[in-house]
């Protein structure tokens, strides 16, 4: 018959695998280990106490025997005259072996209840054998119930059967009144060990009861303590189950940083944040790709239809008398549609490269103040009548008031940051170009730039939605930075116009692809509806934040927040974690 392979789990009669040691829950293992340790500790302490008491009582009995030995030897003749004396009040057993006549005489005999007699088992011929003179030894008891007045009870018989502790001493005497002292016999002195054994038995029983109580109480308390200690693991388990169900926003509850659970929770939350960020980025990339295909097919249809229509019109009317004039008009429309289609394709390809993470050089050191000054000069050249005010933007100084950004009039400061200069210039140009196209030429514009600190990680900015609520969270983080002085230094750029603006309900759609508040006007101005979408993609590629809000007094305010130093990504982020 084939035997099961070594290492396989054993099976019961029903064919089910028996639980392996690794299948036992951690809490059960810990409680079992604590109970085993308590049991071993209680048993060891009980054994030590009982052994110590037993040895102490034995030594005490030996001391009593040796102390009484000299008294018994000195008064042996008086005891000999009262040989075979027995009394229930006597506790010592005294026996004399006379070597001269070979007789044994019991000089003192304790008597138990109901005249039960117990005496030690001693050699009858005076041969001590393995025992030594003057050294106490233990010997079994001989119980005599022949003279019992009534049926003895169990406790009396049990006490009578307990062993005896005996010491043997040499007896010297004179054969004549003036003769020398010589060895004439051996005298045995004994004490029953019943009381000592009864005490040790009671102490053993007491220690056993206390030990069992300690183990049971310790088991209950340890179970509660282990459950409490492992409750963070239970919470982590529940959080992991929710994450497994698809809720990536779940996080492990934080604990004290100086504990193992706190360190584990911090590491898990950091890992979960990266996983969620990667998953969200993948989702956004997929959605952007789908939207790219849909928007491209939709937006390219219009110029292609115009090119096709005017080409058909030219073919149909080329034989007409005024064919040349009409041909020039058709070719002009075809050129305009192809130019629009070229611009649209370039913007779409730019967005596609940004979605894939390409087309960004994050190693350049750029002066954002110089970029904004150049764009301000361009806007002034396009609209000479427009008032352009510049200044330094910062957090309001009044601490009790809600945090908000305020501009102090002055020259734009120099702010250096690590970014892609071409893409950064593209963002500013798109915003300034929109101001030129969609606002009156005589409406004022404010451009401001500054540096503030945020009590946030640099990687959190690009996760925020491009709206006013997220901007308020950033301003609250800037207010906290005043106290903590821990976080990220960022550059803040603001572009404020006082044109017609955008309805409040449409602010969140400004950064959507192909969104324009007035499509017909956008086409007249030459817009594709991709400028702000490109700006959002570029800012997020720089781990920054951008949003549009209503300006005080009407118009739009674009706010850009970008870290001065780019956070590590990819392998660098994993190594720094």
From TrEMBL:
Its EC number is 2.7.13.3. The chain crosses the membrane at residues 30-53, 203-226. The keyword Chloroplast does not apply. Residues 1-11 have a biased composition (Polar residues). One of its GO terms (cellular component) is plasma membrane. InterPro entries: HAMP_dom, HATPase_C_sf, HATPase_dom, His_kinase_dom, HisK_dim/P_dom, HisK_dim/P_sf, Sig_transdc_His_kin-like_C, TCS_sensor_his_kinase. This is histidine kinase. Residues 295-566 form the Histidine kinase domain. GO terms for molecular function: phosphorelay sensor kinase activity. Keywords: Kinase, Membrane, Phosphoprotein, Transferase, Transmembrane, Transmembrane helix, Two-component regulatory system. Gene3D superfamilies: 1.10.287.130, 6.10.340.10, Histidine kinase-like ATPase, C-terminal domain. Its main location: membrane. Residues 227-280 form the HAMP domain. It catalyses: ATP + protein L-histidine = ADP + protein N-phospho-L-histidine. Residues 1-20 are annotated as: Disordered. It comes from Bifidobacterium cuniculi. It is found in: Cell membrane. PANTHER family: SENSOR HISTIDINE KINASE TRCS, SENSOR HISTIDINE KINASE YKOH.
